[in-house]
Amino acid sequence: MPLSPADERDLDRMRPVDEVRTLVLHYAKALSTEAVGLALATGRTLATDLIAAADQPPFPAAIMDGFAVQADDGSPWREIIGAQMAGQVTAPEVTPGTAVRITTGAPMPPGADAVVQVEATDLSDDNHVIIHQDHVEPGQFVRPVGFDVRTGDVLLSTGTLLGFAEVGMLAGEGQLPVMVARRPRVSVLSTGDELVEPGEPLGPGQIRDANRFSLVAALEAAGAEVVWSGKAPDEREPLRALLLDRLTDSDVVVTSGGVSMGELDLVKALLPEVATVHARRVFMKPGKPLNFATAGDDDRTLFFGLPGNPVSALACFELFVRPALLKMLGRAVIDRPMVPVRLAAGATPGDRPEYQRAVVRVHTDGHLVAETTGVQASSRLASWVGANALVLIPPGETPLEAGHVVRSTLLGTPLGPI
Ligand code: AMP
Ligand code: MG
Q: 345-395: per-residue pLDDT in tens?
């Protein structure tokens, strides 16, 4: 539907980052869930709470290799009446004057209430052990029932990103299969007549398509499933057909290029014909011309028209697309940590909030120091390489001096001091 001049004016209003973020998150709805095997669970988002069905350990267990004894047994040596290895329950009852060999993880034999570690013993012969410990506490080196996990404990909650420990926890609880959020199905489209594939030679005026590949990588790292990626020319009909096709077959469509003020910025021009446009400009640098739209039943398909400049595209991805994807996944935490950092060098604020790519290090005294990655042009993808933070330089007139504290989004782990 063509937009009225009033609609056009409202769409072209420069919106603060937070306003656009709120708008995007309003439309980003949790996706359905699916069952996967443990081997495929890493990196997925848990869609149910994991509640402990039983105590762990389910029996009192030895936590040292040694001898199971009665703690208050004062005998200087004990007769070895059997052995209990992990996984076995065959040992006879321990009585005063006796001991049972035991290994870590084995159930305590009946009658025994403590373990003397092998280092504190000597064998007097094959059948007798001398204990070199004056006082043995009841419960010594015994892990009681429910020490690690108690029945009813919430071990993992809905919205948890499944990493190594979490997958082990699911396995330990015998949780098969695992209910996880369905991954958002995403299509990625680069637009621009100047673009050629990375494997092709460059003709006059051409550049290689970088955005499609950085965006696919960023999407997959955020937990999305890229179901389609391709390139479109700056021509109305093929572009319109592709946009319609992708919008009907994706949860999220991400394009790059074609959203600024140029006459061939056709994504912006065609978008109102295929989707409901909600925003076109964000008060930020880089990444001002972001087009956000929705389509389909209940506006469930999200459309992000990212700017063509490679850094602008990634900045908009970080600020808007990634949180939307994590919300669709039902993730409990959708934001990266925002922390105060000190500027390693002075900075000149501009007229918009600026997200500078930087390397953040932990100083020896504990505070964080941010050093930018050099020239911050939105075309210079090298400014993102190695960056572990987006440092937010607020707009203003006064230059910021080295040491000034600003807020920074951590994209990765801060490095150690140099
Ligand atoms: P546009 O937003 O289409 O006006 O593009 C802005 C700038 O980004 C231009 O210099 C484009 O050549 C460049 N650009 C657009 N798409 C890509 C892409 N996929 N990879 C690398 N650079 C691009
Ligand atoms: Mg273009």
A: 999 999 999 999 999 999 999 999 999 999 999 999 999 999 999 999 999
Amino acid, single-letter form, for residue 305: G
pLDDT in tens, 217-231: 999 999 999 999 999
CA–CA dist 9, 49 (Å, integer):
46
DSSP code of 398?
A: S
Tokens of 122: 């000597």
How many other β-carbons are positioned within 10 Å of the β-carbon of residue 264?
16
Average pLDDT, the chain: 96
Q: Are 268 and 11 in contact (CB under 8 A)?
A: no
| Nearest 10 degrees: Cα torsion 108, 114, 117, 120 | -150
Q: Which ligand is nearest to the CA of 309?
A: 1
Q: How big is the chain, counted in residues?
A: 418
CA 182 to CA 178: how far, in whole Å? 12
Nearest C-alpha neighbor of 224 from the set 332, 338, 323, 335: 323
Dihedral sign for Cα atoms in the order 280, 282, 285, 286: negative
309 lines ligand 1 (CB under 6 A): yes
Q: How far is the CA of 264 from the centre of ligand 2 (A)?
A: 7
Would the pLDDT of 1 be above 70? no
Q: How far is it between the farthest Cα atoms of the chain? A: 99
Is the bond leading into 310 cis (omega within 30 degrees of zero)? no
Distance 4 CA to ligand 2 centre (A): 25
Percent of the chain predicted with pLDDT > 70: 100
DSSP string, 36-67: E-GGGTTTSBB-S-EE--S-BSSS-EESSSEE
Q: Backbone dihedral region of 338: left (phi > 0), alpha (psi from -120 to 50 degrees) or beta?
A: beta
Higher pLDDT, 1 or 341: 341
CA-to-CA separations, 346 to 189, 285, 341, 403, in angstroms, rounded? 38, 18, 13, 8
Residue nearest ligand 1's atom 3 by CA: 257
Q: Measure Cα distances from 190 to 83, 228, 259, 320, 334 in Å.
A: 68, 11, 12, 18, 26
Alpha-carbon gap, residue 28 to 114, rounded angstroms: 56
Which-ligand-closest: CA of 190? 1
